Amino acid sequence: MEFKDNEAIYLQIAAYVSDQILLGTWPEEHRLPSVRELAGDLQVNPNTVMRTYDFLQQQQVIYNKRGIGFFVAPASDDKIKVYRRERFVQQELPEFFRTIFLLGISLDEVQQRYATYTATHFPTSPLPSVSHENQQ
């Protein structure tokens, strides 16, 4: 995993774990990799992974079974979506709108490219795609 300089590493790892949950790789009640295992896989300090797991536990996305490990909480995908949608709408969407405005990219082009991207990268995904019916 390559980390970005503009965001805390533990939050980037939390996004990675959340992605695995949203994609169904780690379903509800699935045991997560141990702190040491994930730290080794991502080549980070175990304290950083522990901070990630603490953060996700506070968000009620995962829970700890003492002595056994961390598990994906029931309805975690809904909690992830609420948190990430709010964060996206507040932080990333304004910058996205500014960029497409400055570059003269139309919403039709964005929609076409989004459809191509999702068809290529998530051909069997249960995640919804954009349609004209969903736009307001």
Strand-helix topology:
Blueprint: H1 9-22, H2 35-42, H3 46-58, E1 62-65, E2 69-72, H4 76-103, H5 107-121
Give the proportion of residues in helices. 55-70%
E-strand count: 2
Q: Name the CATH architecture of the domain at 9-76.
A: Orthogonal Bundle
Beta-strand share of residues: 5-15%
Quick structural overview:
By secondary structure, the chain is mostly helical. The protein has 5 helices and 2 strands, in the order H-H-H-E-E-H-H.
Question: Please, could you describe this protein's structure?
Answer:
Helix content is 57%, strand content 6%. It contains five helices and two strands. It has helices at 9-22, 35-42, 46-58, 76-103, 107-121, and strands at 62-65, 69-72. It has 136 residues and is mostly helical. The protein has a domain at 9-76: Arc Repressor Mutant, subunit A (Orthogonal Bundle). It has a two-stranded antiparallel sheet with strand order 1-2. Pfam families: GntR. Keywords: DNA-binding, Transcription, Transcription regulation.
List keywords for this structure.
136 residues; Arc Repressor Mutant, subunit A; two-stranded antiparallel ribbon; single chain; mainly alpha
